[in-house]
Amino acid sequence: MRRLMLLRHAKSNWPEGVADRERPLATRGREAAPVMGRYLADELLLPDLVLVSPARRTQETWQLVAPMLPEKPPVQHEPRIYEAPMRRLLEVVQETEPQVKTLLLIGHNPGFEDLAMHLTGHGDRYAAARLSQKYPTCGLAVLDFAVEDWRDVAARGGRLDRFVTPASIGEGPDE
Q1: What pLDDT is attached to residue 175?
Q2: What is the CATH number of the domain that holds 42?
Q3: Residue at 93 is within a domain
Q4: What are the pLDDT digits (tens) for 5-21?
Q5: Is residue 140, in this structure, part of any structural domain at all?
Q6: pTM above the 0.90 mark?
Q7: Is 34 inside a domain boundary?
Q8: Is 74 part of any domain?
Q9: What span, in angstroms and rounded, lies between the C-alpha atoms of 17 and 130?
Q10: Predicted confidence (pLDDT) per residue in 115-173, tens digit
């Protein structure tokens, strides 16, 4: 089995004159990211590998999530995640080494929403309904695949285990 977790970056600011890639987290984002880190730890959703977009807002999200985890997993900064369409994200997932059982990606929309919808074949219908409505900042989709190799992750092959946000776990407003 393989588990894919897609964590959209926390809420960011849009400062004038700052390039998109350099946008920092907003106050609400700095509050939400540790909430999701605690959720990952409390639910034992512990990644074997974390791939993070090089955007400042994703890097800051990870920096606030990581201290909440009982152990810090290996982290790679993956430029292909930045503003990636669904197909590129799927390639990144499918290229993951076989020893990684649980993969966490920290990135952006609309790619994450598109990928989660593309990969979901069945699962929690309430989570699927929330996912189909909106993928807010700091939203986390958890998908399980009954495959032995990441190369076999394919359209509609995943089971949506859950889709949570800080608001859905009672810890703050959604975007």
Answers
A1: 55
A2: 3.40.50.1240
A3: yes
A4: 999 999 999 999 999 99
A5: no
A6: yes
A7: yes
A8: yes
A9: 34
A10: 999 999 999 999 999 999 999 999 999 999 999 999 999 999 999 999 999 999 986 65
Distances (CA, A) of 152 to 44, 61, 79, 96, 135: 25, 29, 23, 11, 25
**Residue closest to 117 by CA, chosen among 104, 127, 131, 103:** 131
Domains contained in the chain, number: 1
Task: Give residue 3's identity as a one-letter amino acid code.
Answer: R
- Distance, CA of 40 to chain centre: 11
State the Cα–Cα distance between residues 25 and 126, nearest whole angstrom. Answer: 29
Among 77, 65, 3, residue whose Cα is nearest residue 33:
65
pLDDT digits (tens, 9 = 90+) for 30-45: 999 999 999 999 999 9
Polymer length of the chain: 175
Enclosing domain of residue 22: 2-109
**pLDDT tops 60 at residue 65:** yes
Residue of 115, 88, 87, 175 lying closest to 139 (CA atoms): 175
Tokens linked to 97: 């080494």
Which residues sit opposite 163 in a β-bridge? Answer: 141
Residue 3 CB contacts under 8 Å (≥ 6 apart), including other chains: 45, 101, 102, 103, 142, 143, 144, 145, 161
